[in-house]
């Protein structure tokens, strides 16, 4: 074999491929001719792909939200022109249209997108504004995800603002550029008359775009939001952004957020800013979503980027990506001064109790919950609480335990912060995400101890949480107030419908579970006393003992039935903290490091 000749051929091929890729140009123009009908009109221009046909594809999901959402269902009227001549368009897959371009050097493709789902992860258009969640708007040519593109927005008459994390094109109003589709798809766009204000933090300009009014005080936010930014940046030692955009939709029932590369989208109850609890909840959302610009966007599981936009992208590490972000939400709120140490500890102890009280936490591991996010987390049913655990909730508790484990093992000199920073720098240097083994290895390197047992118990297993042990590291005594009380319970959750309690959930291994109550059963009476709609007979349990048998008259499928249920003891814990007597120097060191006390 002539190695020199082979190498030369490979080099020529590589350069030819790069040259061909460089010649491909993709641009979009998005307009809103009749926004009250909830449509966005998209003109897509592609040049440099002289082929018999090209396939254009709509993503089926959006990064950060692990569910196949089938965005192509909202696409209509796909047409294409080569010069002045119309060319054939054929739909060949659920999300793929084939354009028979006949080797034309350039194509103009037009289509419209119906956008009327209110969420942080889906496009929405109405007479007041347009929110473009890019994976639901922009189609991509097959095999061109690495190609750059430009996007021009044509605001509807009377709209005068566009807010996005995309880079603007100099001298071209409302025109933006993306180096590749991963960047384009990670850059939502808000179009309308949103209230816009800015602040500087960590050396970065932050833009806040508020849609929908609300009882917020911009001046207060400009003082408080930077404190969160500075605390998050301090963990990693650098802020990777040149600029950052908050797109905030203030709605009558807004909730949640979705992270992006240098921006985020919130749904917020517009009245929530008016109360201290509501305002702190908003700041907590800022802390959560802003932390994502490191944790999951750059410090990421290896499966999450570059993305496959047509299929599920599986990872067992969402308990880190989302759960640790939830844990740090609490830490940043504490460090920024919006929570007290007592509130910080009490909230986390409550989170531990929540996992203990979730039957599904005894069935599904954190790793399993992460892997099955695509089929379970966004598709809950009446039995989900019995069979699954949230990777957010379990991951937050794992973050707490791991933090305390590291602090205790290093006698207060290291913490989970050190693991997160080291893994961020590792991902930055390698240009790729981490594996589970790599993350565990870094935890071991920082702590100086083996993490095999920890991972087996809490990441890959369903071992009971040793809360007394871990909080004990910090000199905090946590007890189960319900221990030994032996309180009887039926084991159902109900909703009042038509004057009666209708079962909406049955707890695994409860009396109701064992003796056959089902979701949908209408409880008419318990031991002859009519059941109140919203309480599932709980007052009727007064005076009862564990082991007593109660008789329920129910309707199931409109038929009368009688079911006898043997009451069991309520297994739920109520955890109550207190400072241990005679706290040691080692415990005090852990407490100080954990809470940042002086």
Secondary structure elements and their pairing?
Elements: H1 3-23, E1 25-31, E2 39-47, E3 54-57, E4 75-82, E5 85-86, E6 89-93, E7 96-99, E8 106-114, E9 124-125, E10 130-132, E11 140-141, E12 149-154, E13 161-164, E14 167-168, E15 175-178, H2 181-184, E16 189-192, E17 195-201, E18 204-211, H3 218-236, E19 243-251, E20 257-259, E21 263-269, H4 276-291, H5 318-335, H6 341-356, H7 366-371, H8 384-387, H9 391-409, H10 416-430, H11 436-447, H12 452-459, H13 467-473, E22 476-480, E23 488-489, E24 492-497, E25 500-506, H14 511-515, E26 522-526, E27 529-530, E28 549-556, E29 559-566, E30 568-569, E31 575-579, H15 585-595
Parallel strand pairs: 1-12, 18-19, 19-21
Antiparallel strand pairs: 1-2, 2-8, 3-7, 3-11, 4-5, 4-8, 6-7, 9-10, 10-16, 12-15, 13-16, 14-15, 17-18, 20-21, 22-31, 23-30, 24-25, 25-26, 26-27, 26-28, 28-29
Helix pairs in contact: 3-4, 4-5, 5-6, 5-9, 6-9, 9-13, 9-15, 10-11
């Amino acid at each position: 074999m002539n190695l020199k000749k082979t190498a030369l051929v490979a080099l020529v091929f590589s350069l030819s491929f790069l040259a061909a890729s460089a010649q491909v140009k993709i641009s979009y123009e998005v307009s809103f001719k009749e926004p009250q009908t909830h449509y966005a009109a998209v003109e897509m221009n592609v040049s440099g792909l002289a082929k018999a046909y090209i396939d254009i594809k709509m993503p089926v999901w959006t990064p950060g939200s692990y569910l196949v959402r089938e965005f192509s269902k909202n696409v209509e009227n796909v047409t294409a022109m080569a010069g002045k001549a119309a060319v054939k368009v054929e739909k060949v897959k659920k999300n793929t249209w084939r354009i028979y371009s006949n080797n034309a050097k350039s194509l103009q493709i037009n289509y419209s997108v119906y956008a009327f789902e209110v969420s942080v992860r889906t496009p929405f258009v109405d007479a007041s504004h347009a929110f473009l969640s890019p994976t639901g708007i922009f189609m991509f040519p097959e095999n061109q995800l690495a190609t750059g593109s430009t996007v021009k927005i044509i605001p509807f008459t009377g709209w005068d603002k566009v807010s996005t994390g995309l880079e603007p094109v100099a001298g071209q109003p409302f025109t933006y550029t993306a180096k590749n589709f991963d960047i384009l798809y990670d850059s939502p766009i808000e179009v309308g008359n949103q209230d816009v204000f800015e602040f500087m933090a960590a050396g970065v300009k932050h833009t806040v775009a508020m849609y929908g009014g609300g009882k917020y005080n911009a001046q207060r936010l400009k003082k408080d939001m930077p404190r969160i930014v500075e605390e998050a940046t301090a963990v990693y030692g650098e802020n990777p952004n040149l600029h950052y955009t908050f797109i905030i939709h203030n709605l009558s029932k807004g909730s949640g957020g979705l992270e992006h590369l240098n921006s985020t989208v919130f749904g917020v109850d517009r009245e929530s800013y008016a109360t201290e609890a509501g305002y702190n909840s908003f700041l907590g959302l800022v802390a959560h979503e802003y932390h994502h610009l490191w944790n999951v966007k750059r410090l990421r599981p290896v499966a999450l980027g570059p993305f496959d936009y047509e299929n599920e992208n599986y990872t067992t590490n969402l308990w880190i990506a989302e759960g640790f972000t939830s844990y740090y939400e609490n830490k940043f709120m504490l460090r920024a001064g919006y929570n007290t140490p007592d509130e910080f500890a009490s909230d986390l102890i409550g989170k531990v109790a929540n996992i203990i009280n979730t039957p599904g936490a005894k069935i599904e591991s954190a790793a399993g919950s992460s892997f099955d996010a695509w089929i379970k987390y966004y598709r809950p049913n009446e039995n989900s609480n019995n069979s699954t655990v949230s990777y957010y909730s379990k991951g937050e508790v794992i973050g707490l335990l791991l933090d305390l484990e590291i602090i205790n093992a290093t006698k207060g000199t290291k913490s989970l912060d050190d693991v997160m920073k080291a893994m961020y720098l590792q991902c930055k240097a390698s240009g790729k995400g981490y594996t589970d083994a790599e993350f565990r290895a870094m935890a071991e390197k920082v702590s100086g101890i083996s993490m095999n047992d920890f991972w087996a118990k809490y990441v890959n297993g369903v071992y009971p949480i040793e809360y007394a042990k871990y909080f004990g590291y910090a000199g905090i005594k946590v007890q189960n107030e319900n221990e030994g009380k032996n309180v009887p319970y039926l084991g159902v959750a109900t909703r009042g419908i038509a004057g009666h309690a209708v079962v909406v959930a049955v707890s695994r291994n409860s009396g109701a579970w064992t003796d056959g109550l089902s979701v949908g059963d209408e409880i008419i009476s318990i031991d002859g006393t009519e059941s109140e709609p919203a309480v599932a007979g709980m007052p009727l349990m007064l005076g009862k003992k564990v082991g007593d048998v109660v008789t329920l008259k129910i309707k199931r499928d409109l038929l009368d039935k009688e079911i006898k249920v043997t009451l069991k003891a309520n297994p739920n814990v109520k955890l109550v903290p207190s400072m241990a007597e005679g706290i040691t120097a080692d415990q005090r060191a852990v407490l100080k490091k954990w809470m940042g006390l002086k």
